[in-house]
Write a structure and sequence with these properties.
Layout lengths: L2 H14 L12 H10 L5 H14 L3 H4 L4 H8 L5 H18 L8 H5 L6 H10 L10 H10 L7 H11 L5 H14 L18 H7 L1
Helix pairs in contact: 1-11, 2-8, 5-6, 9-10, 9-11
Pfam families: HhH-GPD (PF00730)
EC number: 4.2.99.18
Cofactor: [4Fe-4S] cluster
């Protein structure tokens, strides 16, 4: 995608998804962190149902640590990968209490030092809670950005790097949400709705298939 098409694509996305916000429900940095960990290979809708129950009595690091791993597993079972997620959440929570004074750390490297927190999760927390310029590449962002041509990369990390090169820094966090919502509503994994997509005129994948 050339610079002109990139500019046009971002303009269209910004207009269509001007009010795009995270779909996960949270009231604190800690709740957001736990919700994002739970969202791996799970829908946000399912996570919100699980956290509505979990956070009723276990919405702080101290309260979470009152649970055994087996007890936490019962809460989050329906999110999938529940054993590893429970272990990660409790390990990360223990570090938050013991190393960071009970508060989710703001520094990117400190965030990534927590169990279960990789590049994507750290970027989400940085952008959404700490209001920093960051692009989290989940499956939607990876798929949509590479189809459009905003990136041409084989991994999420390389996709993130290319998106940062092609999108103005002030728009990084917002573009993350634009791409997610476009992936959910139009650019589906199996059957993208190209016929009704306002981006088809600048989409590398669509234009390539027409030639």
């Amino acid at each position: 995608m050339d610079k002109q098409n990139t500019k046009e694509a971002l303009k269209i996305l910004s207009e269509i998804y001007a009010d795009a916000r995270p779909a996960l429900h949270y009231n604190s940095a800690y709740e957001l962190l736990v919700a994002v960990i739970l969202s791996a290979q799970c829908t946000d809708e399912r996570v919100n149902k699980v956290t509505a129950e979990l956070f009723r009595e276990h919405n702080t690091p101290e309260k979470m640590l009152s649970l055994t791993q087996e007890q936490l597993e019962k809460y989050i079972f329906s999110c999938g990968l529940y054993k590893s997620k429970a272990a990660h959440i409790l390990s990360a929570t223990k570090d938050i209490v013991e190393k960071f004074g009970g508060k989710v750390p703001e520094g990117f490297s400190e965030l990534k030092s927590l169990a279960g927190v990789g590049q994507k999760t750290a970027n989400v927390v940085s952008a959404v809670w700490f209001d920093k310029d960051a692009i989290a590449v989940d499956t939607h962002v990876f798929r949509v950005s590479n189809r459009l041509g905003l990136a041409h990369a084989s991994t999420p990390l390389k996709t993130e790097e290319q998106l940062k090169e092609n999108i103005p820094q002030k728009d990084w966090s917002k573009a993350h949400h634009w791409l997610i919502w476009h992936g959910r509503r139009v650019c589906h994994s199996q059957k993208p709705d190209c016929a009704n997509c306002p981006l088809s005129k600048v989409c590398d994948d669509y234009l390539h298939r027409q030639n």
